[in-house]
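Long-time lurker. I teach an intro course on protein structure, and each term I like to show students one example going from raw sequence to a predicted 3D structure in token notation. This year I'd like something fresh instead of my usual example. Would anyone be willing to generate the tokens for the chain below so I can use it in lecture? Attribution to the forum is fine with me.
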Amino acid sequence: MEKMSRVTTALGSSTISGRTMFCHLDAPANAISVCRDATQVVVAGRNIFKIYGLEEEQFVEKLNLRVGRKPSLNFSCADVMWHQMEENLLATAATNGAVVTWNLGKPSRNKQDQLFTEHKRTVNKVCFHPTEVYMLLSGSQDGYMKCFDLRKKESVSTFSGQSESVRDVQFSMKDYFTFAASFENGNVQLWDIRRPDRYERMFTAHTGPVFCCDWHPDDRGWLATGGRDKMVKVWDMTTNRAKEIYCVQTIASVARVKWRPERKWHLATCSMMVDHNIYVWDIRRPFIPFATFEEHKDVTTGIVWRHQHDPYFLLSGSKDSTLYQHMFKDASRPVDRANPEGLCFGLFGDLAFAAKESLISGDANRKPYPGGDRRYPIFFFKKPDLTEQFAHVSSALSVFESSLESKRMDWFVKTARLYLLSGKPFAELCDHNAKVAKELNRPQVSTTWTMLRIMFSDPANLSTPGPNHIGKLGTLPLMNSFSMKEMGMGTESRLDRSKGESRQDNIHLDLGNSLINNICPNAENEETEGSEGQAEYMFGDAELDDDDLYSMEHDNQAEEQEYTLPQEAFPLRHEIMDNPLAPEHLQQDKADSPQASGNEAEVMCLTPIESFSLISISQPLFSPHLPAPFFCPVVREMLSHYAEQGDVQMAVSVLIVLGDRIRKEIDDLTQEHWYMSYIDLLQRFELWNVSNEVIKLSTCSAITCLNQTSTTLHVNCSNCKRPMSNRGWICDRCHQCASVCAVCHHVVKGLFVWCQGCSHGGHLEHVKNWLKSSSHCPAGCGHLCEYT
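-- Reply from a regular --
Happy to contribute to a lecture. Here you go:
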């Protein structure tokens, strides 16, 4: 700490000097308080109660108030305060509910003066009156506040907040009779000590417990409050109703708040958890701290300015068992490290960007708008105030408008309504959703659905081919529809299938190109169907789609013809010709090939080389179907990609359709986040039915319970106007049917609509038609009904 500079402050007759320094404590501190002349500080905690002297170079221990062989719980302190009028008077709030005063002028080792045990639970706060020596106020976990006269042995007034525990009490600095109290239910109450029966004013300050409050030392009506909602609010109490005039958003719950002396706009805060730093805020700039002290390694539990007229020294105690004196010049300034750029999205997708003029001055296409953009009146340039201690940065504003097409969300609504998530086989769901995405001009999503069908569809049972036998389509190595051409073998297959007829295969082998062609004599149509990619199987006039690849039924009406092998293993080599167009025997075969029709079948003898090649490719090179878990990592990354891009609709839809195939690969919290985001979007677009379907199809327990809450309707009888207590439609009081249509006077057995004002109703269509011509209730009660 030697690098820290030394500061000397003159305060009237006394002088404060020192530097940033610290000392180690015997135990964690819960609270600290400083004496009137700023020369000593008291540190209190569960296992520590000591007084330290503040010297220029270090802290010096002056007195240990925990005396005795067996210290009682009276020494276990939740709060401590040093009287600002009487230098020898201390008060502590004990965790056992006791309020203890200490007289440092006693000659004995035990400095305890008085003990008040009227509170039944832990006392959270004690506070001396700023001008009355003998007046002490306490706030307890039992919900009561008590005012003690130290000249008496019991409290003189008890204030009941009629609420939960009291977290802080503070006497007003300017109003003699007023004190403020903050509660765990988020309320703040103002009391007059002369009227203990009822508070003067109460208002809700925070959403959650209010942990601290502090009156402004100079401005009579300003009260600062801090709570668990991570906010510090400044209230103007001079008006009839408490008015919030400033609000500072912090990053953690606010445990302590203290106004900075001699600086009207500054206050210091520390957190109850997570954040260990101490922040000094300028309430006029609530989004970034004015200064930060980052020395503590654990939660800061107490802060106090060293002198009520000195803004340069701040004392703090922490759970890390250290006591610090912070010098303001050594504080870090976050604004010096902040980027002077701002980015904000508008309601309709417009983007506003503000940056230094020096960064945008080179943009010739940008049109400057001095004084703010007139097209966007919500943006304005703040006029510089020389009295502010802020770094002045002149910014330039640019607004980027989004096109009308990019703002439209019609595709989201149409997709949500047209998608099928259940009720059909997996392959049909994928095909249907792919078709919907393609029609909405979303090719990537459509391709994703097609690939999911290919990856996770269950193929038909594949038969194993014989060594010299080419089976039907089931023997082709499908490999999840990955073609032979992709494996570099250049295979093409053309099969002709006729229902009720035996299928024939005329096979020729091209030795030069190693190609196998299954030629269908009457094949004219060579277009392919199925996936959007390049099709690899052609089926003549009657084509098969991708599903037929996996579910083709074998016709057993005619037995396949076996191929016979020649007697000679190595036939004589044919005469080599100059530049032949094709092998001679292939040209002859092509010329002599008859046209097959009906039940004719042609048997062809192959050479051994041809047979060997044919046998080689007729065997699957590897397993014809990859297991579903093989694709799960890829699908998981794909779903994360869609979710990160903002398309939670695709992520949730795939999650529901795939079901158990992929659900175990994604943690429950991520699934719940996706579901909640998608359901929120559906409800914003008023797609209630789709939202309910998604909730029902979810397997997350936190999601499935969403449509099980608030499902009870309390209705009144349309005759006697009393609540119906039983579950049926017969009123147990007037014994009349409550579901009688006011238009046709028949019992409603389907959809029933009723007016919440007069309780009359009837068939939906009847009531709608009635209200088209009349606004009065059809039952004749005179009520003006409205159907929305």
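Some talking points for your students: The first helix runs from residue 334 to 337. The CA atoms of residues 255 and 272 lie 5 Å apart.
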